[in-house]
Structures are given as C-alpha cells and as structure tokens.
Design goal:
The protein folds into two domains: about 55 residues, no CATH class; about 280 residues, Cytosolic phospholipase A2 catalytic domain, CATH 3.40.1090.10. About 40% of the residues lie in helices and about 10% in strands. It has 18 helices and twelve strands. Strands 4, 5, 6, 7, 8, 9, 10 and 11 form an eight-stranded mixed beta sheet that branches. A two-stranded parallel sheet has the order 1-2. The protein has a two-stranded antiparallel sheet with strand order 3-12. Strand 1, helix 2 and strand 2 form a beta-alpha-beta unit. Helix 4 packs antiparallel against helix 17, helix 5 packs antiparallel against helix 7 and helix 6 runs antiparallel to helix 7. The C terminus is likely disordered.
Length: about 475
C-alpha cells in the first residue's frame, strides 16, 4: 500500500487521426481518482489494427531508420516520462498579447516542440487557443476575431452599469470568451495547461489545471475596476486577474514538471518620466491637453495604472525569472502599444513573429542551440549511429518505442499487406501470431521470434508484498535462462 501511494500513475488516452477534439475527459478521471495526470495522444489508425508479430517487427525496423518527429504526441509523452518536457509561459499585457500568436508561429518554425502551456490574463486566452487548436492559422483567425469584438465600443457601452463594483457588468466580455471556447474543460485540451488567478477571498494565488476553461480564463483576465470578480463555480471565491500576483509564472511551470521553459513577457514597462500634476487631477484638463495646439503631458490612464499595479507585487518574481537558468526569457519590442489597443492586432502579431524569428535564427546561427533541439549535424550522426547499431541492439526503452511509433508511415510498405480503415484488420499471413501495434515486444528487431513473456497485463502497476516476492523469483528465473 505504501508503494501504491508513491507510484505515479499516468492515464494515456489514445485518439485516432481525424477525430474531433477530446471531450468527457472528466468522466474518465472521476472514475479513476488514483490517476496522477492524463495525456491525450493522437496516433495513427494503424495503432488500432491487428498485426502479426512479424509485421510489427518489419514495420518498426524501417521506422527506426528515420529521425523521430519531435512534435508528435508520442514524443511529447516520452519527454514527459523522461523529465525533459518543454513548457511555454505566456504573460499578461492586454492587447500586447497579440504578439503571443506571432511568437508561437516563430517557435513552430524554429522546430521547438511545445509540451505544456501556462498563461496569465491575455496569455491564458492565447495559450488556451493553442492547446485547443494546435494550428497557427486557426489560432490566428480566432484571436483576430476576438480582438475585433473588443474594439466594438458600442456593444461595451450597453454593458455599462452603476460602478459599485466595476464599470461593466461583464456579460459582453463573458460572451466573447464563451463564443471562442464553448463548454470545453481544461481536462479536454490536447496539451497540459494551467492559468493563474488572484483569489481576493483568501488573498492567495490560484493555479487552475481543471474545470471550466472559459470561466477561469475570464477570471484571469478580470482587471479590477473594469470587470467584476469571477465567482469560482467550485467554492464561490472571488477571482481577479492573475497578473496581480504573478504575471509571468515560469516558476509555476517549473513546478509542474517542465525542464526547459520559454517565457514570453508582454507586460508594460514603467515610464519614469511622468508629469507632476500636483495634488489633484482633472480629467477635463487631460482632455484639453490632447488638442494639437497644447503641450502634451505624460499621465497614465486607468488601464495603464491597472497594468502597473499588476507588477507591484511581482517585480521580484519577474527578476528571478529573467536571471534563472531554467527559463529562456523573451520580450518582444511592443512597448509603444497600449493595453487596450486591440485594433492593432495584426501589427502587434507581426512584431512578435519577427522578433521571435530573429531571436531563434540568431541563436541557431550562433551555435547556441537550445537543450531541447539538435543541430543538423547531430541529427545526421544520430541516424548513422542508429543504423550501425540496429543489428546489435535487442533491448529498447519506452522512449525508443515512442519515437518509433510516432513516425509510423501511412503508406504500406512493399511486401506488406495493405491496411484498411477498419478498427480490427486481421493479417492474412501468420494468423497464429496476433498482436497489437501498441504492444511490441522488447526485441522487436530480433529475427528469432521467440514467444513473448508477458506479466501483469492488467491491473495496477503497484505491487503488494507477495507480488514483490514473485517479482524477485521471476527475475531470478529469467536471469538463468540461456541467451
């Protein structure tokens, strides 16, 4: 029982290519409260077809000759199990968050995988879009549509209310977020995801990894004074913008298990050269100062003040992120854009893309490859070494299996029977040896097809005391077997 409590249990949910996005994941997890975490894996239809052991060996022997696709879900699962996941953290900053879309595009073009995503405020919105779609074009389209809705001031005027708690009721803002994500739950996202909110009921930072997606995004984007706090549907606590406590949660991403982290900061930079207007300030005077024949003044408006407040309590944390060795801190040049300048979406997006492309291109040319990337020379040498050791190696780890499976080709190989779209397709040859492509043996390239020794094909991976004794007896017997 003690071992059962310490053992980490991962739920892997397989999805066929071409399927809709995951749903009803909460039902699976509620029936398995012993699960540590879950993973949605998109795999080839061949994974669900019957194959003889001979065909499996032949298939994987050819797959082994190619470099694995580091962007596949199986590679993502392998990195998680080996503790080498890549996390993407998107900070808050209002309309400046449009640069997140361009940065994601630059990251993809640089060949960097994204295994986990965390975000705050506008970063929570953009990060959830990527976890939902995993397609830059669709992400850009939906982000542009939402930004366009935020420029429709006449709709927002209809949402005005008596400012007892906030200027707006929040109905229209809720509608814009709900129309983007619908009733999706965080558990149904393709990638692991979290967002940060400020719990003003308990005066703590809240990390949300499950629950209603649109509601917690709304809570993480709720600026004080503009939107009313969101009532948490689980405990009724009041939630506000997460930027008030942690506007770039790279430290949270590290605690979630990511080894390599890209942190994109789009927060406002404090302008120290402000106008000294005295003991009081008239809004009408500021309005007159906007006329062309008057001298301009530098006084922060209400959104800028809210944005500055978000940094007061997390300046020290932000400096730690900048100086950390586990995080790659990136800040696009978006200081000239204001917090509510959503009408400049495409311009800000292009600024983020150009900066990201220049950043990663310079890193590659300078030879400073990120730890999660390999240079072309390293990739070639790895393939050559793999070819030279193919005939000698007879034991493979799960990481090797994941890399092989993620590169299964769709076209049938010469000499192999054609695969159909049926869920269970029996092999015409070698019908006595039937197995599944997801369960190859440890010596998949061994030409001598000895019977597989399988133990504990079902049940929990935790072992009781009696099972531990049987395990030791099994290993003592297998160690004496002739090689």
């Amino acid at each position: 029982e003690r071992m059962a409590m310490r053992t980490q249990k991962e739920l892997v949910i397989l999805h066929k290519e071409g399927c809709e996005r995951p749903n009803n994941t909460v039902t699976w997890l509620n029936m398995r409260n012993w699960i540590s975490s879950h993973h949605h894996i998109l795999c080839n239809k061949r994974m669900f077809s019957r194959r003889s052991q001979y065909r499996i060996n032949e298939l994987y022997s050819k797959v082994l000759m190619s470099e694995p696709n580091i962007h596949s879900d199986f590679s993502r699962l392998a990195r998680w199990l080996t503790g080498t996941s890549v996390g993407l953290v998107l900070g808050g900053g209002g309309a400046r968050g449009a640069s997140h879309v361009g940065m994601v595009k630059a990251i993809q073009e640089a060949g960097i995988p994204i295994d986990m995503v965390g975000g705050v405020s506008i970063g929570a919105f953009m990060g959830a879009l990527w976890c939902t779609e995993r397609n830059v074009t669709t992400m850009t389209q939906k982000a542009r549509e939402w930004s366009k809705k935020m420029t429709q001031w006449w709709r927002q005027l209809l949402d005005l209310t008596y400012p007892a708690t906030s200027m707006f009721k929040g109905s229209y803002f809720n509608q814009t977020i709900y129309s983007t994500f619908g009733d999706t739950y965080i558990e149904d996202l393709w990638l692991p995801y979290f967002t940060i909110t400020t719990d003003i009921t308990a005066s703590v930072m809240r990390i949300h990894t499950h629950g209603s997606l649109w509601r917690y995004i709304r809570g993480s984007m709720s600026l004080s004074g503009y939107m009313p706090p969101l009532c948490d549907p689980t405990d009724g606590h009041l939630l506000l913008d997460g930027g008030y406590v942690n506007n770039l949660p790279a430290d949270v991403m590290k605690r979630c298990g990511a080894k390599y982290i890209l942190a994109i900061d789009v927060g406002s930079q404090d302008d120290m050269d402000l106008t000294n207007y005295g003991d009081d300030l008239s809004g009408w005077w500021l309005l007159l100062k906007r006329l062309p024949f008057t001298s301009p003044v530098k006084v922060p408006n209400l959104p800028d003040i809210q944005s500055r407040l978000a940094y007061v309590s997390c300046v020290r944390q932000l400096e730690e992120v900048k100086n950390s060795d586990y995080c790659e801190y990136i800040r696009p040049p978006i200081d000239k854009y204001t917090t509510l300048q959503f009408g400049s979406f495409d311009e800000i997006k292009d600024v983020g893309y150009n900066h990201g492309k220049t950043f990663f291109t310079g890193m590659m040319k300078g030879g400073a490859y990120p730890p999660f990337l390999r240079s072309p020379d390293m990739q070639v040498s790895r393939i050559e070494s793999r070819k030279s050791t193919t005939t000698q190696s007879t034991s493979y780890t799960f990481t090797d299996l994941a890399q092989m499976v993620c590169k299964v080709q769709r076209k049938p190989y010469s000499g192999a029977s054609d695969s159909s779209d049926d869920d269970y397709e029996a092999d015409e040859e070698d019908t006595q040896e039937v197995g599944y492509a997801s369960e190859p043996s440890g010596n998949i390239l061994d030409s001598n097809h000895s019977p597989l020794m399988r133990r504990r094909t079902g049940g929990s991976l935790s072992l009781s005391e009696n099972e531990l004794e049987s395990e030791s007896e099994f290993y003592s017997r297998t160690s004496r077997m002739p090689q």
